[in-house]
Q: What sequence folds into this?
């Protein structure tokens, strides 16, 4: 210790002029402020920036010279011809360099921190973060290492260059991979960077210690020792990152801490799930709720979940739009869940659709085509990625919905203030032809996703319920040829409503007004059948139907516990209330496919007819 | 056993390991062999001069001797202990004057002495100050501003400050004028010989060496060509050291000197 302190004090004495120079540098903002007309806060900010620049410059200069300078000038032998261990020489010199570096910063900052009206407070110095200090140490250690490497010019330089190239490439690849899967470094970003800075600085100091202890005054030998110490330590960083990535990518549905997206396939047993998993990374899965098979699917760059996802009717093929790494080359992923192993194809959508997150995304029959609504209507060939149809929105008009009539024909609903135009187009080369109109005043309030009119279709797509939200109006219309719409009366004070078709052809309309929530039932000709009172809910959505059953999801606030009301549409009574947020096949609301999300992650397959519940998994 | 004190003393001395013991020393830089199998023992109290032409490995040998450089092969022992492994302990007994004065140029002799005095078990402040005074070195002058001779003198004063048992001088008179060289050698003779300090020096100043050394070792092509006491060597060659050195580096180690070899 005596040796360390002796060397440190000697080194500080050698470079003591740095400290008064730091004070002079710290006064510079005052000298230039009259010319720059800086306010006091500006002077202070400038002073702090100058102080930090001084710290990093001092770290670089001292790091390169405190040992390397003596070594290059043949002066390190002065220390090695005394009874001093190599560790004492290194530690003493580095300790002096660190103290001088930090002191120079403090001295440079004191003048601006002591400005009149802005007195120096301990918090000013406390605000110096571990990251700043870590980076300063990193600069010091790195410049020492570089100083030795450059002065030695030994054959070990080849190793350094090779390892630098390899480790840089590896790190870039790993970080890119981490970004691609939407993963994060352990802890928050600041902590991760701080740890990284201190770890790399520690590796440089360990290398420097080896260089001095083993190499002593022999530059080439010291270079070899430093390189052989530094690179294995440094490679622990990519190795650790690779392990972290492996851990993140090994997430399973059991690691879900919350289910953000749940979508059961229209048929079969597959369910799409996404939510935060290991390390807070958002992951997306396709899970077979019978066999337990599961696939983690890639959501694309920067996001672990996927964007729009759609199952085909048969429930074993699924398509989604991952977040594109290159916005000019968005891709469509098509996956065949029936194949073992999972077969997945990716095609580039050419030309790119107007948005990567459309309001509607449908995978057509046979998984041959996909359609996207928003803005305009786009249809792509799912095998080639080529666009087969694009119809832009007209002025004051917007496409509300579209559907495949058959694999080669698409029907769309183009709405304006006067009503809805029904268009059909044959694929792949057809032009949209008007098939009919629904005369119904609509308000296309932006954003259409949450405020615009909604269309709900029956199972064969022959009829539709049109919901205009403001003013609230619900109407029944022919979905093929249009014509006059039949109003479904709602309570005069109703603020929200939702409607869907029942299995028997009737219509269930859920509404909420100042007096409560209820389900109005209508015949297929829009004649009132009866009313069933429901527990009051701010948001009541008809999510599905079974024979003689209507399923209504009830929520008061997004964070409140959701419930599912099961209504006997024949007996006109509420039969059951289940706790949980209900997810059904979004397009047709088949009740038998209902999945309930209870709590943040417990998923239950629910049979609305029998009330039977099957826990799919409970992470 | 009336003569036992006189007899016992040499026996006791002989059991103590020599200050310097080099055996089979090899130093190689890449493919270039600088020292090849050098073995040398320096007796306690002797003044041994290591001579050799430039590039024969003298400085490499000194670095190995001080534990600054690890030999490619062979062993270097100071006071019977491995210098590479126990350098810090052993150097507390050694004073070193390097070929190039290597003290930090920003600091004064006084500050350097303050630093060094904290590292050794003993430090003779008065002797240090006296030597600086004798050499005309200002103790407050930064080392970098001293003349070459003053730097050498300061280094010698620093080396002698701890009253070392072994003094290693690597060409201490290099670049010094005649007067300064004379001062250095006079210091060695006058100050150290009396105290029984072992001195190991390298030098190209053969005249000066001849005046102080009692043993001479000559390196030739990385190997030790001669290693013996100076007087018998001079007697064998019947020539001054300078001629002996010339003959040895020319390949004559037997002492059978022709006129041409002797430079006559």
A:
């Amino acid at each position: 210790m005596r040796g360390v302190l002796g060397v440190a004090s000697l080194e500080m004495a050698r470079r003591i002029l740095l400290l008064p120079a730091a004070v002079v540098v710290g006064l510079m903002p005052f000298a230039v402020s009259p010319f720059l007309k800086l306010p006091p806060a500006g002077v202070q900010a400038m002073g702090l920036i100058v102080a930090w620049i001084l710290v990093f410059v001092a770290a670089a200069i001292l790091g390169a010279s405190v040992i390397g300078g003596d070594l290059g000038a043949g002066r390190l032998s002065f220390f090695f011809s005394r009874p001093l261990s190599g560790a004492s020489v290194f530690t003493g010199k580095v300790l002096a360099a660190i103290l001088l570096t930090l002191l120079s910063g403090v001295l440079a900052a004191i003048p601006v921190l002591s400005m009149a009206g802005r007195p120096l407070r301990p918090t000013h110095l406390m605000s110096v973060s571990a990251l700043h200090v870590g980076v300063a140490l990193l600069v010091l250690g790195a410049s020492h290492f570089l100083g030795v490497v450059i002065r030695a010019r030994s054959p070990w330089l080849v190793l350094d260059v090779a390892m630098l190239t390899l480790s840089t490439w590896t790190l870039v690849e790993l970080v890119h991979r981490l970004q691609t899967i939407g993963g994060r470094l352990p802890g928050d970003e600041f902590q991760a960077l701080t740890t990284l800075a201190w770890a790399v600085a520690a590796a440089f100091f360990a290398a420097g210690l080896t260089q001095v202890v083993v190499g002593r005054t022999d530059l080439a030998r010291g270079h070899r020792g430093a390189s052989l110490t530094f690179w294995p330590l440094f490679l622990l960083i990519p190795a650790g990152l690779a392990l972290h990535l492996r851990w993140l990518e090994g997430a399973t549905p059991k690691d879900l801490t919350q289910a953000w997206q749940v979508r059961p396939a229209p048929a079969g047993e597959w369910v799409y799930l996404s939510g935060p998993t290991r390390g807070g990374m958002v992951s997306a899965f396709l899970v077979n709720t019978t066999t337990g098979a599961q696939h983690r699917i890639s959501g694309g760059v920067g996001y672990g979940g996927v964007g729009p996802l759609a199952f085909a009717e048969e429930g074993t093929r699924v398509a989604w739009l991952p977040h594109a790494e290159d916005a000019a080359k968005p891709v469509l992923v098509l996956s065949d869940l029936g194949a073992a192993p999972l077969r997945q194809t990716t095609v580039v959508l050419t030309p790119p659709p107007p948005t990567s997150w459309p309001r509607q995304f449908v995978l057509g029959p046979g998984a041959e085509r996909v359609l996207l609504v928003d803005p305009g209507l786009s249809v792509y060939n799912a095998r080639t990625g080529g666009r087969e149809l694009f119809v832009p929105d007209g002025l004051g008009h917007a496409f509300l919905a579209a559907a495949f009539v058959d694999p080669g024909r698409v029907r769309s609903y183009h709405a304006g203030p006067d009503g809805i135009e029904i268009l059909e187009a044959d694929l792949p080369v057809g032009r949209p032809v008007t098939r009919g109109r629904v005369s119904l005043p609509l308000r296309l309030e932006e954003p259409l996703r949450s405020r615009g009119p909604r269309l709900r279709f029956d199972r064969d797509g022959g009829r539709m319920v049109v919901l205009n939200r403001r003013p609230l109006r619900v109407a029944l219309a022919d979905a093929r040829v249009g014509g006059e719409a039949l109003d479904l009366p709602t309570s005069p004070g109703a603020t929200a409503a939702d409607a869907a078709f029942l299995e028997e052809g009737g219509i269930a309309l859920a509404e909420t007004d100042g007096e409560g929530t209820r389900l109005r039932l209508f015949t297929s000709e829009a004649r009132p059948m009866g009313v069933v009172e429901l527990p009051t809910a701010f948001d009541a959505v008809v999510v599905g139907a079974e024979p003689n059953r209507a399923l209504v999801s009830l929520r008061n606030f997004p964070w409140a516990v959701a419930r599912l009301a099961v209504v006997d549409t024949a007996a006109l009574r509420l039969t059951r209330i289940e706790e949980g947020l209900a997810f059904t096949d979004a397009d047709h609301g088949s009740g038998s496919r209902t999945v309930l999300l209870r709590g943040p992650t417990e998923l239950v397959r629910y049979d609305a007819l029998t009330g039977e519940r099957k826990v799919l998994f409970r992470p | 056993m009336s003569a036992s004190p006189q007899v016992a003393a040499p026996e006791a001395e002989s059991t103590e390991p020599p200050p310097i013991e080099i055996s089979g020393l090899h130093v190689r830089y890449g493919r270039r062999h600088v020292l090849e199998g050098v073995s040398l023992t320096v007796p306690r109290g002797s003044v041994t001069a290591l001579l050799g032409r430039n590039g024969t490995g003298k400085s490499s040998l000194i670095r190995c001797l001080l534990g600054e450089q690890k030999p490619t092969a062979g062993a270097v022992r100071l006071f019977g202990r491995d210098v590479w492994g126990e350098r810090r302990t052993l150097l507390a007994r050694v004073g070193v004057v390097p070929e190039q004065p290597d003290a930090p140029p920003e600091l004064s002799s006084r500050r350097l002495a303050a630093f060094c005095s904290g590292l050794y078990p003993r430090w003779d402040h008065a002797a240090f100050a006296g030597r600086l005074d004798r050499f005309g070195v200002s103790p407050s002058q930064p080392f970098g501003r001293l003349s070459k001779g003053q730097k050498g003198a300061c280094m010698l004063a620093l080396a002698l400050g701890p009253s070392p048992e072994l003094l290693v001088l690597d060409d201490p008179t290099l670049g010094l004028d005649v007067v300064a060289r004379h001062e250095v050698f006079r210091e060695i003779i006058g100050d150290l010989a009396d105290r029984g300090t072992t001195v190991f020096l390298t030098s190209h100043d053969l005249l000066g060496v001849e005046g102080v050394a009692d043993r001479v070792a000559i390196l030739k092509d990385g190997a030790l060509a001669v290693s013996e006491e100076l007087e018998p060597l001079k007697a064998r060659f019947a020539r001054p050291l300078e001629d002996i050195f010339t003959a040895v580096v020319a390949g004559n180690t037997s002492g059978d000197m022709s006129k041409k070899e002797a430079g006559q």
Notes: Chain A has twelve helices and 33 strands.
